[in-house]
Amino acid sequence: MLKNKHILISITGGISAYKILSLIRDFKKSGAEVKILATPNALNFVTKLTLQNLSQNNVYIEEFDIKDWKPEHISLSDWADIMLIAPASANTISKIAHGIADNLLTSVVCAFSKKIILAPAMNCNMWRNETIQNNLKILQSRGIEILEPETGFLACGYIGKGRLCAINKIFDAVKEALNYSDILKNKKVVVTAGGTIEDIDPVRYISNYSSGKMGLAIANSAYDMGAEVVLITTKDFECPYKVVKVKSALDMQKAVNEEFESANYIIMASAVADYRVKNYSIQKIKKGNEDTITLELVKNPDILAELCKNKTHQTIVGFCAESENLEHNALTKLERKGCDFLIANDISRKDIGFEVDENEVLILNKNREIKKLDKAPKKIIARKILECISTK
User: Fold this and answer.
1) Does 156 qualify as catalytic in the annotation?
2) Residues sharing a CB contact under 8 Å with residue 218, sequence separation 6 or more, in sequence order
3) Burial 286-305 (b: 16+ CB within 10 A, else e)
4) Pairwise CA distance, residues 72 & 206, whole Å
5) Are 36 and 104 in contact (CB under 8 A)?
6) First and final CA of the chain: distance in angstroms?
7) What DSSP letter does each residue of 92-155 carry, written as one string?
8) What is the pLDDT of residues 70-99, one digit of tens each?
9) How far apart are CA 360 and CA 339, in angstroms?
10) Which CATH class is domain 188-390?
11) Which pLDDT band, with edges at 50, 70 and 90, does 68 fall under?
């Protein structure tokens, strides 16, 4: 799957730089062409000769070491299909976030218009630093994928979060990114994510456990496939595309309707509350002497059903979270709503679905055909869902 792909690996100064040696070999064994860009400090941990032998290419270090008419930061940017920065130090992360281009690595990043994956590694206290976390959010908002470090024993003697993530995870992330197609180019994809919040009074509300992770994964994958993306969400996400923050089901309905006419795909991954409080109290409800309290609820509009009823050219995708009889309940909902596709997942399992990073789903279409996607990271599930619905 990586045959003839051009991978630019950028190594910064950190003890985990030695782990990248096995990653280079794995990419080469998979058929990829690999070039190495190392900061001078990286060579305190791995040698230039070792990197050259493993990559079978020159190692790029100095910014003005120009071997032909084309400056290195431009030629490397043009050559690479993807740029991986691993390990990424706190210093390099901060420079990239603020557009500082004072060495070859950061200059390449400034010129790079394709996918960038960044795998940080540092002391746990540095990782928790507010400035570093803010800089990571800036990078995510620009479309840079962050592979968060793992928790464990660190070279400095601490135990905490900061260790470079597993090499196989980095390998899989690069492979996944390189195998995205542009099948959604010139298409507009609207995705909803997160559980809606229905206020009771100024301090209380009704909601659910939806984290919005599946919707976010779908929005990110659609963006990587070339789509114009609008994410309508109840959560705070930093994204390189349009994000509309909403709160209640009525807010979400309004936001979706505003994007409806120009959309090609609408994917309702959010967990919309079925009911809201009939009479919202503008003042906090005080605890009285009664042992019980009664709230009168009214139905929220069925956003998915309304979209399906009014669609013209759009492909509408619904989601179905069930705790029992998954296939039967999903087929019933598919027919009742009238959507083109329905994605069903089993929320009774703790290893998939709400608030975790993996999922396992059924994809149902309007012809009652069912396709199972086995348990995998949500970003992989997201890509497969988009491939399925875009080739109907």
Assistant:
1) yes
2) 191, 193, 267, 269, 382, 385, 386
3) eeeeeeeeeeeeeebebbbb
4) 56
5) no
6) 24
7) HHHHHHTT---SHHHHHHHH--SEEEEEE---HHHHH-HHHHHHHHHHHHTT-EE-PPEEEE-T
8) 677 888 999 999 999 999 999 999 999 999
9) 20
10) alpha beta
11) low
Domains 6-178 and 188-390 share a fold: yes
Q: Is 360 exposed, middle or buried (0-12, 13-18, 19+ CB in 10 A)?
A: middle
Catalytic residue among 156, 165, 239, 320: 156
Structure letter (DSSP) for residue 17: G
Give the length of the chain: 392
pLDDT confidence bin for 186, thresholds 50/70/90: very high
Give domain 6-178's CATH architecture: 3-Layer(aba) Sandwich (3.40)
CA distance linking residue 313 with residue 32, whole number of Å? 40
Number of Cβ within 10 Å of residue 371's Cβ equals 13
Please give the mean pLDDT across all residues of the chain. Answer: 93
Ranking 26-35, 204-213, 353-362 by mean pLDDT, the lowest is: 353-362
Reading the block at residue 297, the tokens are 């609820």
- The residues near 26 (Cβ < 8 Å, ≥ 6 apart) are 167, 171
- Are 255 and 246 spatial neighbours (Cβ–Cβ below 8 Å)? yes
Domain regions of the chain by residue span: 6-178, 188-390
- 227-257 pLDDT tens trace: 999 999 999 998 999 999 999 999 999 999 9
Give the DSSP letter of residue 42: G
The CA distance from 15 to 46, in Å, is 9
Q: How far is CA 212 from the centre of its chain?
A: 11
- For the chain, helix, strand, coil in percent to 5 are 35, 25, 40
Which residues, other chains included, contact 292 with Cβ-Cβ below 8 Å and sequence gap of 6+? none
